[in-house]
Each structure stands twice: as structure tokens, then as C-alpha cells.
Inverse folding.
């Protein structure tokens, strides 16, 4: 790549971005909300317009080399060996880029003056790129690919910048996805995902919402940050896009796209889970413990709905510890936490003993506050019955399912779908005990209710009839 200034060994300090670059942006009449494309002609190329490039000896240098050639101590000190490489989109605003790197230094106790970042728009010679374009040429894909790998292997610490969090531009750009994938799969590379401070605060506030709001936030996060399809990404040059797609197939085989998408999405899901946990814990206010517990519970519930049960369990346990401490074990909010924990332990982890313990604690609180025949109490009897079934404690399971049946009959009446479910649950346990005659009676009661409520060919009606048919065979046998 002889005709393009690579600048591999040099980066720009975060301090200069905060001070010098933003000042130059303002001096040229731009707002900090301008993106890289906006400022590139006047600020970036403008800086090196009258400087001889030390790489090729031609007129026009990179921004970095212009700083070194200025003779000004503060500008010379703004250039140094890069500790990090920024992977980003030129569509990002200058303000977002600077604030993201500033916040990264703050949260990692790094000195902005001595933290140097390799940023392509400032470290590559944009004059050479534009000159080639003016000649009807483009910088070859192989040249940019070599440039990237040189920086990955040389710098090894990559900051992948995602913004906005609801619809990251990064994941729509072919080069960004390719950089993310290469950095993630390179054995010596450390990859960190970063977001602008304002986006971080906005996400934190959204995660502190209530009920369905939090569900929507979590769903949006996973849809936006963990549903990448490299085939749909775009590049400034279609030739680059086609070359990257071809390279993926060459390196990974016919399933190359799927392999890349799976790896990138796994990486992003892990980051999303970590970010959610970190942001929610930051939101934890010791002066408002009930509010903190509510946020933990809401996020846990939302995580369960998208299938991240381990993270959900950890959040539920945080909420439970707070609620036990300030509300007591008999409070309904505490009972709700017990039940949610029991549900994950039973349904997703198969931890029957601990699930039973949490369900029993929840039932005690619900019965104490709401009465034994309240739907919440009756539902917990069913939950406990299922756990006991799994433990093959059939007599105890039968008792719990009959208590659930009695409770729901009292609150819902005889002909309710939940009552039909309870009859079915009782019948299943009776079958397990070998009491097929009694089981058949319960299956028939369940069918009678479903026939009143549903159409003849509804799946629940069909299944109820099938259960009766099977039970009759066992009874005869």
C-alpha cells in the first residue's frame, strides 16, 4: 500500500480530541453534532493540506502527521503509540466519538493525555484517498484489509462503538461488522464494546421503567444488538462489500455468513447481558431500596421472556435480598420474588429441592395475605404439585393439585378453563399412581368443560379426547 499513508504506529490522544479537535471543528463553523463525513474536507484534510507527507514525500498529509509537523508542543504531544483502535462509523457525530472515548478513560482510570487511539479518519492520509477517487480509482480492498489486520495485530485492543443503542449504525455497515468479527476471532485481540455517555444514561433510564416498558427495552436491545446479518450490511463501495462477503466464504466455507453472524451475535448478547446488569446495578439507590428491588424484578422478568434465565435468576435474587430485608418474608412483593425464583429453578434448571422451597415460601405469604382460595394461592398449589410430580411424590402432588382445583372452583366457578386444567393435572397424577378409573373421571370432567368453552376441533378438545382414549386402554388392560 505504497500510495496511502497507513500511520500504523501512531494514535491521537483523547485529551487532544476533547480540546484541540473540538476547537478546530468549531472554528470551521461546525457544531459538535457534525459527523466525520461533514468535517473531513475542512478539518481533517484541511489540517494537512499544506504539509508534506513523511511517508511518500508528496503534498498533503494525514491529520496525525500534520500535528507532528506543526512545531507546537501541545500538538506534538497529542501523538503517540496507540493503546487502542477505534472501530466506528463515519456517520457518528464528533461529539459522540469524543464523549465515548472520554467516558472510557474515566471509567477505566486512564489519563486522557497519555491514552492514544488509532482512528482511521485521522491516522490515514485522506488526501491520497481523494486523489485516487479524482482519478476514477479506489483504494484496493486488499490495501484496507491489510491496514486493518496490521492494526489488530499491532494494537490488539479494539473499541467497538455502538450508537444509538436502539438501532446501532455500526451493525448496518459492512466494514464495522467485519472488523468486529476479526477482532473477536483474533487470539491476541481484546475487544470492548462502548457507547456514548448520553446513550448509556438513556438506556439506564429506560431500564428503570415499569412493566411492559422494560420488556420493550430488553426486547429492543436484543433485536438491535444481537440480530446481525452481514448479508444485509452496506459499504460505501459495493466492491468492498462484495469482497468482504467473498472473503468470509473463503475463510469459513459455505456457511461462512452463518458462522460470522452467530459469533457476532453471541458476542453482542454477552455484552447486552453485561451492560444490563451493570446499568441496573448503577441505578440501585440505597436510599430507595424498594425502587431498586422493583427495577431488579422488572429487568429479571424481561430477561426471562427473552430466554436469558441465568441472568434473570441473578436479578430476581438481588430483588429478593432487598425485599426480605426491608419488607419481610410475608410481604406480597417478597412472595412474588420467591415464586419467580422457584419458576426458573424448576422450569429451566431442574433444581427441584430449591424450587420447592421457594414455592412453599411464596405460598405461605400469599395464603397469609390473600387467603388459601385466592387464585395466586391456588396457582402456587399447582406449581408445587408439578415439582412433587417430578420428585415422584405422587400422594403429595395429588393433594396439591386438588387444593388448586378447589381454590379455582371457588374463585372461577365450575366451567372455567383453569378448572379444566386442574382436573387434567389431577388425572395425570392418578394415572401415575395406576388409578386409571379415577383418572378417567377427571379427564372426562376436563373434556366436558372444554366442550362448553371451545369449538369441537380446538386442539385442547382434541387432546382431552386423546387423553381419555389412552386412559380407557390402560383401564381395560
Amino acid at each position: 500500500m505504497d500510495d496511502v499513508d497507513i500511520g500504523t504506529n501512531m494514535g491521537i490522544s483523547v485529551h487532544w480530541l476533547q480540546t484541540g479537535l473540538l476547537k478546530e471543528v468549531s472554528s470551521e463553523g461546525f457544531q459538535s453534532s457534525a459527523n466525520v463525513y461533514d468535517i473531513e474536507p475542512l478539518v481533517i484534510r484541511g489540517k494537512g493540506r499544506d504539509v508534506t507527507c513523511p511517508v511518500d514525500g508528496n503534498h498533503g498529509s494525514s491529520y496525525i502527521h500534520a500535528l507532528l509537523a506543526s512545531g507546537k508542543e501541545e500538538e506534538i504531544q497529542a501523538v503517540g503509540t496507540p493503546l487502542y483502535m477505534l472501530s466506528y462509523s463515519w456517520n457518528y457525530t464528533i461529539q459522540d466519538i469524543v464523549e465515548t472515548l472520554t467516558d472510557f478513560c474515566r471509567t477505566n482510570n486512564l489519563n486522557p493525555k497519555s491514552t492514544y487511539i488509532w482512528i482511521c479518519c485521522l491516522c490515514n492520509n485522506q488526501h491520497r484517498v481523494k486523489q485516487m477517487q479524482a482519478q476514477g480509482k479506489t483504494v484496493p480492498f486488499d490495501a484496507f484489509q491489510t491496514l486493518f489486520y496490521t492494526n489488530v495485530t499491532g494494537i490488539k485492543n479494539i473499541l467497538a462503538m455502538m450508537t444509538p443503542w436502539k438501532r446501532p449504525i455500526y451493525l448496518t455497515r459492512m466494514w464495522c461488522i467485519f472488523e468486529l468479527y476479526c477482532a473477536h476471532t483474533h487470539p491476541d485481540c481484546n475487544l470492548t464494546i462502548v457507547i456514548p455517555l448520553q446513550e448509556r444514561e438513556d438506556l439506564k433510564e429506560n431500564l428503570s421503567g415499569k412493566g411492559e416498558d422494560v420488556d420493550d427495552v430488553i426486547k429492543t436491545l436484543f433485536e438491535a444488538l444481537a440480530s446481525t446479518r452481514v448479508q444485509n450490511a452496506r459499504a460505501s463501495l459495493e466492491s468492498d462489500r462484495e469482497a468482504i462477503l467473498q472473503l468470509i466464504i473463503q475463510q469459513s466455507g459455505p456457511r461462512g455468513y452463518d458462522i460470522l453472524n452467530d459469533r457476532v451475535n453471541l458476542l453482542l448478547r454477552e455484552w447486552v447481558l453485561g451492560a444490563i446488569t451493570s446499568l441496573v446495578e448503577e441505578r440501585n439507590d440505597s436510599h430507595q431500596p424498594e425502587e431498586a428491588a422493583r427495577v431488579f424484578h422488572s429487568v429479571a422478568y424481561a430477561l426471562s421472556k427473552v430466554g436469558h434465565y441465568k441472568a434473570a435468576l441473578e436479578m430476581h435474587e438481588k430483588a429478593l435480598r432487598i425485599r426480605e430485608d426491608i419488607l419481610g418474608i410475608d410481604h406480597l412483593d417478597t412472595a412474588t420474588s420467591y415464586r419467580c425464583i422457584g419458576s426458573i429453578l424448576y422450569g429451566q434448571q431442574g433444581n427441584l429441592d430449591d424450587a420447592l422451597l421457594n414455592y412453599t415460601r411464596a405460598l405461605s405469604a400469599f395464603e397469609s395475605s390473600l387467603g388459601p382460595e385466592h387464585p395466586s394461592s391456588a396457582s402456587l398449589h399447582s406449581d408445587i404439585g408439578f415439582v412433587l410430580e417430578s420428585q415422584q411424590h405422587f400422594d403429595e402432588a395429588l393433594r396439591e393439585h386438588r387444593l388448586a382445583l378447589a381454590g379455582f372452583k371457588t374463585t372461577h366457578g365450575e366451567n372455567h378453563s383453569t378448572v379444566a386444567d386442574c382436573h387434567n393435572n389431577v388425572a395425570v397424577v392418578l394415572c401415575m399412581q395406576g388409578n386409571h378409573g379415577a383418572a378417567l373421571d377427571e379427564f372426562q370432567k376436563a373434556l366436558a368443560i372444554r366442550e362448553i368453552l371451545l369449538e369441537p376441533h380446538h386442539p385442547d378438545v382434541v387432546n382431552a379426547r386423546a387423553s381419555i382414549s389412552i386412559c380407557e386402554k390402560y383401564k381395560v388392560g
Notes: Residues 414-477 form one domain.
